[in-house]
Amino acid sequence: MAQLSSSMEPMLKLRDELDIVIPTIRNLDLLETWRPFFEPYHLIIIQDGDPSKTIKVPEGFDYELYNRNDINRILGHKASCISFKDSACRCFGYMVSKKKYIYTIDDDCFVAKDPSGKDINVIEQHMKNLLTPSTPHFFNTLYDPFASGAEFVRGYPFSMREGVKTVVSHGLWLNTPDYDAPTKLVKPLERNTKYVDAVMTIPKGTLFSMCGMNLAFDRELIGPAMYFGLMGDKHPITGYDDMWAGWCAKVICDHMGWGVKTGLPYVWHKKASNRSENLKREYEGIFCQEVGVPFLQSVVLPKECTSVQQCYLELAKQVKDTLGQVDPYFIKLADGMVTWIEAWDDLNTPKGNQKLKHHKWLVSKRRSKLITKKKYGVVDGKSKRDAN
Amino acid sequence: MAQLSSSMEPMLKLRDELDIVIPTIRNLDLLETWRPFFEPYHLIIIQDGDPSKTIKVPEGFDYELYNRNDINRILGHKASCISFKDSACRCFGYMVSKKKYIYTIDDDCFVAKDPSGKDINVIEQHMKNLLTPSTPHFFNTLYDPFASGAEFVRGYPFSMREGVKTVVSHGLWLNTPDYDAPTKLVKPLERNTKYVDAVMTIPKGTLFSMCGMNLAFDRELIGPAMYFGLMGDKHPITGYDDMWAGWCAKVICDHMGWGVKTGLPYVWHKKASNRSENLKREYEGIFCQEVGVPFLQSVVLPKECTSVQQCYLELAKQVKDTLGQVDPYFIKLADGMVTWIEAWDDLNTPKGNQKLKHHKWLVSKRRSKLITKKKYGVVDGKSKRDAN
Question: Example GO molecular function term (chains A, B) (predicted)?
Fold first, then answer.
């Protein structure tokens, strides 16, 4: 390895620096499989859909759970920027976290194994990626030069070997690949079985498809750009939440001089979605992708934008002015982007923190009530005896 | 696989479309290990150093061998553009080949095995890379979407899925990694043991270290940009021949809208060079790299340059004007670049082809004489009896 951040070794101290964000509509039984890896960390669960439904979380996990009512109460009218009935709602979790790093995972992802048969510790690998520099200015043919056993190859300019701060680590998926609806229709049985033992920096000026299934990032630095857009209920688009965030975040990383890595670690993805339904839902998203990507590839942020918030507001302006002429959806999206930054700033100030503490107390109180109910034999309004 | 060129399946027909170029100063016993893979193809061997020395080539291979005297005779005063006492001399082979594709390999590279223990067919993999499109405009997180079992991931714009023509396939090396002299000094025992099962396109606008150890390219398209520069004897720089070619070729590929892939296939690299000697030899090359890369990253070729030759001459001009002010070596190099294009054009016209045919006949006559000598017991001026 070319260099190793001194902060890498003591992974334990990261317990206080990372939150795991999970959006879900179902009981989180899958956490049992993640227990050895997730139990040391704090979970932020964003319950999508019907807020009256109770999401069961296996015992022993330290978590806070927000449903739609909580989001509405905390953000007031600004809650309009958080999607409903779409996993895009997860970005609310980024906003209420107070940690430096976020790891987010889908509720249909399980622990994958490396080729030696060992369970993959996703957080350890993501943190290795984030805590070592990126190399966006020149491509290293032996992949991440900061990975164990790797180096810069001959011809790599010495002046570029310090690299830059890594702020996004994009992990991959074995089994069900992350294909769009038309590809799934054409190749229903295709599975990703190839374990590619590599991490690499996505070069400056190049966009990529950032999937939210297995993703880590530096919330303190790039958090305000991780807005998952307006999707699902009341909007014509769904399923492009993570893509939108990835395209915008990459444009901003390039401008700020930060790096994005992709590759290891893998999760095991087990999706059982309705393919025709997906096509119907993604139809408008494909249109958004075809016009959005070329636009974002051409965006130039003025050098006056020196914070992520400034960059994001400038991007929102350009989205409104340019894409807004193509489709009125982009006008709404641009407004959502502005509201998102306002809401982010509200909650990430000393005053906002104070307000949030009260809400966190309310959320935790509800949870205690639920645990008490469970302890005394009442779950979901029924006593254990009734259930039997 | 996203698409497969119909010309891929019948690999046999490629026998007439690919030459293998090997620069060497020693007997080519290593060809025995390559026999199953190289025997169907024509070899162009460029003998470096003392032209009076006889290079032995195992029987059964179809080859032509050029030494310095041949190069001087064929190119006349333009032979000044071909390096001597440096593996950069190999580019002469690209010039005299009449095939569409070139595969070039170092004489210290052997057949590697894939993780299943199977011998890797380098030419088959390189041709898969070259015969399927590249995707330089958007990064596919599951690597080459045209590889077997792979696809474009969600969020990859449909308008970009046709890809572009691939003209360079850069293969990698197991065992001794391709490090520069300082890195070798610092990490003498480091070996590359990681087989990364991936091929990927190097995005547009990004330069990389192109190693000539295990490289294939489309000679007809990018050949004139594959000049390995002025290195070795009479020049202050050595060991940066392939790097220079790679940086220039990538700039021109980006301008022409062509793609460059890197990754599979691997060769087994077994280098036994003198590390301190390397440092002495590469010292000036490192300087060249530190100023050359930022310059080439900033080069813009005018849209009037519509052929590789035009691009290359424009590049030579810019090298002379800009880098020539930094060090007089670059003035010589720029002149060499112009001479190279002149020589290329001389040999790649109907008239040049005719002239070359005569030289090829001379080279083949010398070879027949050598075989006859060998048959009747005389090798290197000694009879077999004397040798015993």
Answer: UDP-arabinopyranose mutase activity
Q: What is the pTM of this model?
A: 0.92
Q: Which amino acid is at A253?
A: C
State chain B's mean pLDDT as an integer. 90
Cβ contact A154–B180 (<8 Å) = yes
Residue A103 pLDDT > 80: yes
Return the structure tokens found at B3.
Answer: 């698409």
| A positions 209-238 inside 8 Å of B (CB) | 209-211
- d(Cα B295, Cα B318) in Å, to the nearest integer? 9
Chain B residues close to A156, C-beta within 8 Å? 180, 209
CA distance A35 to chain B (A): 28
Size of interface A-B (CB pairs under 8 A): 169
Residues B91-133 pLDDT 10s: 999 999 999 999 999 999 999 999 999 999 999 999 999 999 9
Q: Is residue B381, in this structure, part of any structural domain at all? A: no
pLDDT score at B226: 98
Q: Judge whether A305 lies within some domain.
A: yes
Band of the pLDDT at A375, cuts 50, 70, 90?
low
A248: CATH: 3.90.550
- Cross-chain Cβ contact A208/B262 below 8 Å: no
- Residue A369 in this model has a pLDDT that exceeds 80: no
Contact with chain A for residue B148, Cβ under 8 A: no
Could you tell me which residues come within 8 angstroms of residue B227 by beta carbon, excluding any fewer than 6 positions away? B81, B91, B244, B245, B248, B312, B336, B337, B340
pLDDT in tens, B290-324: 999 999 999 999 999 999 999 999 999 999 999 99
Q: Any CB–CB contact under 8 A between A46 and chain B? A: no
Tell me the residue range of the domain where B155 lies: 14-348
Tokens standing for residue A272:
């059982």
Question: Do the Cβ atoms of A302 and A308 come closer than 8 Å?
Answer: no
Q: Are strands A199-201 and A259-269 parallel, antiparallel or unpaired?
A: antiparallel
B59–chain A Cβ distance below 8 A for any pair = no
ipTM of the modeled complex: 0.92
**Is B208 in CB contact (< 8 Å) with chain A?**
yes
- DSSP structure class, residue A139: B
**Contact with chain B for residue A38, Cβ under 8 A:** no
Provide the chain A residues 162-201 that lie in CB contact (below 8 A) with chain B: 170, 172, 177-180, 183, 187, 190, 192-198, 200
pLDDT at A262: 98
Q: Which two tokens stand for residue A123?
A: 């957080």
Give chain A's domain count: 1
- Dig out the tokens for B297 from the structure: 């990253």
Per the domain annotation, does A133 fall within a domain? yes
Residue B353 lies in a domain: no
Q: Would the CB atoms of A193 and B243 count as touching at under 8 Å?
A: no
Kindly report each contact of residues B371-376 with a partner whose C-beta sits within 8 Å and lies 24 or more positions away, as own/partner: none
Q: Which residues of B152-176 are buried (b: 16+ CB within 10 A; e: fewer)?
A: bbbbbbeebbebbebbbbbbbbbbb
Pick from A31-35, A261-265, B6-10: least confident:
B6-10
Q: What is the pLDDT of residues B35-60, one digit of tens each?
A: 999 999 999 999 999 999 999 999 99
